[in-house]
Amino acid sequence: MILILKGGVTDEQVDHVIERVEAMGLKAHLSRGTFRTIIGIIGDESKIVVESVRSIPGVAQVVPVLPPYKLASREAHPESSVIDVSGVKIGGGNIGMIAGPCSVEEEDRMHRIAEQVAKAGANIFRGGAYKPRTSPYAFQGLGEAGLKRLRDVGDAHGMPVVTEVTDPRLVELVSEYADMLQVGARNMQNFALLNEVGASQRPVLLKRGMSATVTDLLMCAEYILSKGNPNVVLCERGVKGFDPATRNLFDVAAVPLVQQLSHLPIIVDPSHATGKPELIPACAMAGLAAGADGVHIEVHDCPEVAKSDGPQALLPEQYAELASQLKSLAALLGKTLSPLPEKTA
Amino acid sequence: MILILKGGVTDEQVDHVIERVEAMGLKAHLSRGTFRTIIGIIGDESKIVVESVRSIPGVAQVVPVLPPYKLASREAHPESSVIDVSGVKIGGGNIGMIAGPCSVEEEDRMHRIAEQVAKAGANIFRGGAYKPRTSPYAFQGLGEAGLKRLRDVGDAHGMPVVTEVTDPRLVELVSEYADMLQVGARNMQNFALLNEVGASQRPVLLKRGMSATVTDLLMCAEYILSKGNPNVVLCERGVKGFDPATRNLFDVAAVPLVQQLSHLPIIVDPSHATGKPELIPACAMAGLAAGADGVHIEVHDCPEVAKSDGPQALLPEQYAELASQLKSLAALLGKTLSPLPEKTA
Amino acid sequence: MILILKGGVTDEQVDHVIERVEAMGLKAHLSRGTFRTIIGIIGDESKIVVESVRSIPGVAQVVPVLPPYKLASREAHPESSVIDVSGVKIGGGNIGMIAGPCSVEEEDRMHRIAEQVAKAGANIFRGGAYKPRTSPYAFQGLGEAGLKRLRDVGDAHGMPVVTEVTDPRLVELVSEYADMLQVGARNMQNFALLNEVGASQRPVLLKRGMSATVTDLLMCAEYILSKGNPNVVLCERGVKGFDPATRNLFDVAAVPLVQQLSHLPIIVDPSHATGKPELIPACAMAGLAAGADGVHIEVHDCPEVAKSDGPQALLPEQYAELASQLKSLAALLGKTLSPLPEKTA
Amino acid sequence: MILILKGGVTDEQVDHVIERVEAMGLKAHLSRGTFRTIIGIIGDESKIVVESVRSIPGVAQVVPVLPPYKLASREAHPESSVIDVSGVKIGGGNIGMIAGPCSVEEEDRMHRIAEQVAKAGANIFRGGAYKPRTSPYAFQGLGEAGLKRLRDVGDAHGMPVVTEVTDPRLVELVSEYADMLQVGARNMQNFALLNEVGASQRPVLLKRGMSATVTDLLMCAEYILSKGNPNVVLCERGVKGFDPATRNLFDVAAVPLVQQLSHLPIIVDPSHATGKPELIPACAMAGLAAGADGVHIEVHDCPEVAKSDGPQALLPEQYAELASQLKSLAALLGKTLSPLPEKTA
After folding, report:
1. Using CB atoms within 10 A of its CB, is residue B342 exposed (0-12), middle (13-18) or buried (19+)?
2. How many domains does chain C have?
């Protein structure tokens, strides 16, 4: 960590800063420049409360030298992690293909969609039983009945399932039914929830918040990892942007950036990122070409009757066409769409 | 609600749209323009699932005519609400002055700060017992011991207290100690938490999320109101911006905008909005001049040892000077800083 | 265009709105809903000054039905345009590969870079002679000497050249030397400059401004088209974002969005979009996979001595590796990197 | 300037960095920490090309210690500048009140508006003769005839006038008619134009670009100052935001921030910042309360026939009411609205 002192700093202030640094068990290395004095802090930076240091009189700026996350960093874990979701691998050249409707819907529709996406190449089935809706008057999901249906449909088609958990009190229940727990964008910094999914052993799909930097995202992964759950898959799903032409702004550069900073896999969700079916295939291809470890797509066979988020769903036949293109692209990049888990008799 | 149809829409598609609208118990009013056909929907718009309508083939755009919130809207409740926090009024010309340290700290420090801010004009004391920290390794608050201390200090100085609740499982406990429950920016769309504070009867201080539009904020207030708790005070605390010179971007225009759209009081938090003590007084004045119903300021008597957010705290003497200016400005605007509640013997 | 009237609008106000609409030579189609009255305007919308209409008393909201650009729209010109830059085609399956240093530099370095990028597959050579620098003290480019050198180097290696023009007074001069005129992001809405490049017959590379919506970008293209120059290539080069980890936020979804709204080709510039060489290849691949008609990359053989923007340049060998991957990807997508123009003896 | 080197940097790389720094005539001060090596650069930082330094192999990050602007900085000029616009002072406690229609309009309307705003307290009259319009089909201003009319109306009512100049070729002509030259937000980084207004001796009203940081704004002021024109007034007029409820996001914190970093006056323009007349008074008050040196407001007596930007104009009577409140607020803050210049017989 480097402290840049203010222009007219006094000797007393400099001494006080050094005292404070040494009181934390660290060494201060003073360097007087022509216009500014800087102090390099030598020792274990994690002992420092950055905010307190910034408040020491005479300090103008604090420049961290190390990232604030450790377990999530590639420095700590140079090899890329491969996460196993009940037999389906994500990361290290294995492409996760998560697909399904936004909400868990009627049973026969669920079976139809699952069958079609599995045939097209999807390897994890999704559907929301607890929906975080911006309106209190909107459909809030089927709850436990939805979990059960999702599980049954997944089993029938040999697919692991992922579903969102929105409440720390529900983590245990959801874990009984789902192979993977999704933490949604609006809950990325719901630390009570992160602590609970961290205590679970289910793999977690952690979606980037709408105003989260990549560092913020990795800090939330750190929460989960630090609680003992190493199975985190990150998801870029669009950040808040200024152009109303798309629902969010798909930050595709976050994919290679995360992969340089962290060993955790990262997938893309062009459904939420764009909110427009006509842009989803192009953005899915872009994500994979940028190096993503998977693609999350909402699929519905009749978007006009979907209980939520119909307008951003692909039709099953559109998904099949896209999946076929993604397969070719993965091959070009030396990667493979992960196969469905082998059936254990 | 108005549906704008696509350029080359067929008669069959137009008929199908009308059928779907009528199936929802509404009337469709067709209007063929030179270049586009539009359909006005007549009836109770709240019956419509906007997203489904947008997915009907041939529909290019859906334009809502009414705001999606009802209980929070000024149409529903033309008079400005005045919220009573254990005897301190916020709204309708009564200015709430919330002040105190970021976290609950040592007992004597708490008493010292409370005494100084109360003397300066603060009428609600704040302090965090459960801190939502971006790092799992940072100080997470004192928990229930912090709640108890906050309560005791508030009582000793005759001030109601507000503190943040971050977990739906803690709403009951926090309500036993606090006069007002704060929902933080990162939890604005934590709907499980909103439902719990909505079921409580404690006034709620709802902070705007970093990427929340004013409509998003009012929808979250609607969650709380719809659960039966009418005592919501909104708080503008800065949104995500692109200039690293300030921590967030203080959206002062949100104050008059909220007041036009809603009857709920709105206060400003220039501490979090700017993250820089040297900008806080100017932004506090700006907020009040824009019509805010209160000002939330972090105050600490030794920021360099603060357990959290030291760099954005004012010193007690800086707070006193600011409070005096705010008092003069309030008088100019025909408003008053709410007095401390009278002691009941 | 649709006018949504305010809640308590009077009959007199409604009549006045209709009068005003009819005074513009248009028809008003009234529709009274349960909660709001709307007026559809029938006729040639381009006659309307949107802003004036929004100021008519009683009008709450104006909803345009048609895009504000015409010549740039795909409705007006369903087939994708192919722009010819002195023999190199961009659009319609032909990939433009623009490469070269940020600024025109020393002669031998220019020759070396041009030779290497041409060999790798680049088909247009770039270099700035007039540099828009954020500091008045930074290197401002070589001016006309730079133009001449760029032309000579391009000719020696059989490549058309593109360079930025920043001043309407220089359009004629730059057109004498360059095959394509670049309008930079900071000048996207420099309408005096747009008018001049519109009056030229040189193809124009129009870069998206940092806070420009896709509609804003297409309106600027409309300026150029409306002056008689149909040869416009658009460029997505990153918009302003909140995460300091990248220089800008690469909006890859703008590529398919522009292609749906407009017939003009659009290329991507991952160098400026990310500002980080280690992210450029992934974002270049993402752009092409999303459907871009070309890729603009800065290349320098010794970034640490570059006169500008060294940190975002690829080395020639890095460019060669990327170009080879782009070529494979183009083939997968059924497209081809445009060949260099044939030499005319 | 501080260079933070990469994690696994070699001794050869460290030596090479030091050589490069010394080759620029500066001293390098090496400091090896536990996890990273840092190099402090001692000497005149302005000799350094930041970008080149960042490209030296082994350098991870470059941290500037001084702001990149000099003439505009408060360090260079501790006393606040007071700019004289033909007798009307802006800065140092003198409040500039700029008011008038968006575009120069019909002669009698111009006289009526000028008379009313002057009576209310406005001290500089505004009106656009050259309009930067987003559509090539929109009204582009009256040109020189508009300049002449603005001048005549200003003279008739004893007010200096300000008008926008959009083209470097027009600076001389506009300077003949106007007392102050406005550089609009879209042209903030039009360096050709900045150079020309820098060579003029007319005071310049420099508006902040929609995606410009405060540093970017001050760098553009530096362009003008460095060309010899010290008379620059800055203007905060809203930056690009994500909430469509307002036209832009009024960044009121930029006012005190600029005043800490720079000696130049800064005014606010709530008309463009909000785009909504009902929010303008609150934001004007907020700006003044935050310390702004002036307020720029668009005023029109019949917005529905305005040639541009009608919806964001106040009516003259609304302006008079606001001006009266601003006058009281200025008095509370110990400031005064500058009087009109005395007539010279």
Report:
1. exposed
2. 2
Set of chain D residues whose Cβ sits within 8 Å of the Cβ of A42: 31, 33-34
Q: Do B252 and D255 touch (CB under 8 A)?
A: no
* Subunit contact A289:C291, Cβ cutoff 8 A: no
Domain that holds residue D44: 2-63
Select the residue from A5, A17, A186 to test the B interface by mutation, using most B Cβ atoms within 10 A: A186
% of residues, chain C, pLDDT over 90: 76
The pLDDT of residue C200 = 96
**Beta-carbon separation of B278 and D260 below 8 A:** yes
Chain D residues within 8 angstroms (CB to CB) of chain A = 2, 4, 7, 29, 31, 33-36, 38, 40-45, 63, 65-66, 75, 240-242, 244
Choose the final residue of a domain: B14, B31, B63. Answer: B63
Best residue in A27, A34, A261 to probe D by mutation, most D CBs within 10 Å? A34
Regarding whether C165 and C285 lie in a shared domain, the answer is yes
CATH code for position D45: 3.30.70.1140
> Hunting for tokens 């616009």 — which residue is that?
D85
Closest residue of D to B285, CA-based?
D289
Cα B66–B72–B74 angle (5° rounding)? 70
Q: Where are the beta strands (DSSP E) in D147-243?
A: 161-164, 180-183, 204-207, 232-236
The string of pLDDT tens digits covering residues A245-284 is 999 999 999 999 999 999 999 999 999 999 999 999 999 9
**What is the rounded CA–CA span in Å between residue B34 and residue B21?**
23
CB pairs under 8 A between A and B: 123
* pLDDT tens digits along D270-286: 999 999 999 999 999 99
Question: What ipTM is given for this predicted complex?
Answer: 0.95
The torsion angle over the Cα atoms of residues B56, B59, B65 and B66, rounded to 10 degrees, is: 20
Structure-block tokens of residue C185: 């992001």
Residue pair D129/D163 in contact (Cβ under 8 Å)? The answer is: yes
Q: Which amino acid makes up residue C167?
A: D
Give the gyration radius of chain D's Cα atoms: 23
- Mutation site, D27, D35, D45, interface A, largest A CB count within 10 A: D35
The shortest CB-CB distance from C310 to any of D51, D190, D308 is to: D51
Q: Is residue C345 part of a domain?
A: no
pLDDT in tens, A285-325: 999 999 999 999 999 998 888 887 777 899 999 999 999 99
Counting one residue from A and one from C, how many pairs have CB atoms under 8 Å apart? 115
Residue of C nearest to D61 (CA): C311
Q: List the helix and strand counts (H, then E) for chain A.
A: 11, 15
